[in-house]
Amino acid sequence: MITLHDLKFIPFIAEDKISAAIDELSSNLTKDLSDSNPIFIGVLNGAFMFVSEVMKRFHHECEVSFVKLASYDGTETTSNVTKLIGLQEDVSGRTVVILEDIVDTGNTIEELITIFKDKGCSEVKIATLFFKPEAYTKDIKLDYIGMKIPNRFIVGYGLDYNGLGRNLTEVYQLKQDNMTNLVLFGPPGAGKGTQAEVLKQKYDLVHISTGDVFRYNIKNATELGTLAKSYIDKGQLVPDEVTINMLNAEVDKNPEAKGFIFDGFPRTEAQADSLAELLSSKGSTVSAMVALEVDDEVLVQRLLERGKTSGRPDDADEGVIRNRIKVYYDETAILKNYYQKQDKYYGVDGVGDISEITERLSSVIDTL
Ligand code: IMP
Ligand code: MG
């Protein structure tokens, strides 16, 4: 997998497949255009590599020139094609073969054909290395097609994503990241555990609670668990690296997961960076930090109420409760700021029925 700017691309068409396609296309050109002294017109920038490969395989008299048309921004083809630049040759009465790297909607070649016909060419033929039939909107017949490809965004072999990727000798396709990875936050008593359970079912996510992961690894004396325990036993904090390695192992255990709910991690900016790195190595990202928001007084009341039956000593004392809430906000503030900068922070009202809150969370998740 490679990264160009902000996007990830995975290998799609190997060099030998591309070569074979150009071999065939070129041999058809050689067969058809044996004595017409064609002028090949490469459409820059994308077609440069294709043009040189075709030239190496065309064994009759010919000329070659290059023109430039629309600039192409991002991954969606622009519909307004600008004017032709760079043509010095007189093409009237000539056989012109337009060499394109890719035909997508067909807007570009439509424009080019019109321009060249206006110049009085006797014949205008189209040869394209790649063709996306599903995206094509024109009736114009393409004379020579190297390879038909599905409607995906590709780079390499001359094709770019915002300027990058043209020098790749094989073709890559945009990696589709369909994962929903949530970093779930909520103050004590906000019902985070309950909601995590519901969301996990509803969206088929894997819930990774750092506390559970620690307990599991220590209990089963895994290598990482034993390592973590050695720090805990000395009264030291477990280094982030150990924690992240445990989380990584959890993620790897679920290769088919539609996404993960991270609970209890990250707690610091450095950990948030590590999590981003971990997910990036799987071709994914944190989709959102979702934080349940509940007024402090409501939390205090809920926890005191819970303390009457739960027997948890930390639920019984109002001072202890207030301090836990404060610790939560101190930690959360850093991460809230971190994810807000990336437009990934979502605060969700955590007061109401369980199903009501799930609805609110869902309306956030559904937009991700
Ligand atoms: P069309 O006018 O929609 O046929 O698009 C033609 C131009 O869009 C090509 O010459 C490319 O510059 C660009 N393009 C279309 N699809 C892709 C792609 O998958 N990757 C990179 N560029 C593309
Ligand atoms: Mg092009």
How would you explain this protein's 3D organization?
- The strands form 3 sheets. A 5-stranded parallel sheet has the order 4-3-5-6-7, with helices on both faces.
- It folds into 2 domains: 2-174, 3-Layer(aba) Sandwich (Rossmann fold); 180-365, 3-Layer(aba) Sandwich (Rossmann fold), CATH 3.40.50.300.
- With 368 residues, it is an alpha/beta fold.
- It is 41% helix and 20% strand.
- Strand 1 (2-4) and strand 2 form a beta hairpin.
- Bound molecules: inosinic acid and magnesium ion.
Looking across the biggest beta sheet, what order are the strands in? 4-3-5-6-7
> Got a strand count?
14
* Number of helical regions: 11
Instruction: Evaluate the radius of gyration.
Output: 30 Å
Which stretches are low in confidence, meaning pLDDT under 50 for 5 or more residues running?
A: none
Rounded mean pLDDT score: 92
CATH-wise, what's the superfamily of the largest domain? P-loop containing nucleotide triphosphate hydrolases
- The top-level CATH class of the largest domain is Alpha Beta
The end-to-end distance, rounded to whole angstroms, is 23 Å
Named once each, the bound ligands are: inosinic acid, magnesium ion
Structural class: alpha/beta
- The number of domains is 2
List the SSEs and their pairings.
Blueprint: E1 2-4, E2 7-13, H1 15-32, E3 39-44, H2 48-57, E4 63-68, E5 95-103, H3 107-118, E6 123-131, E7 144-148, E8 154-155, E9 171-174, E10 182-185, H4 192-203, E11 206-209, H5 210-219, H6 223-233, H7 240-253, E12 260-263, H8 269-281, E13 288-293, H9 296-310, H10 318-341, E14 345-349, H11 354-365
Parallel strand pairs: 3-4, 3-5, 5-6, 6-7, 10-12, 10-13, 11-12, 13-14
Antiparallel strand pairs: 1-2, 2-9, 8-9
Helix pairs in contact: 1-2, 4-11, 5-6, 5-7, 6-7, 7-8, 9-10
The structure holds inosinic acid (IMP) and magnesium ion (MG).
Inosinic acid binds at residues 46, 72, 77, 100-108, 153-155, 159.
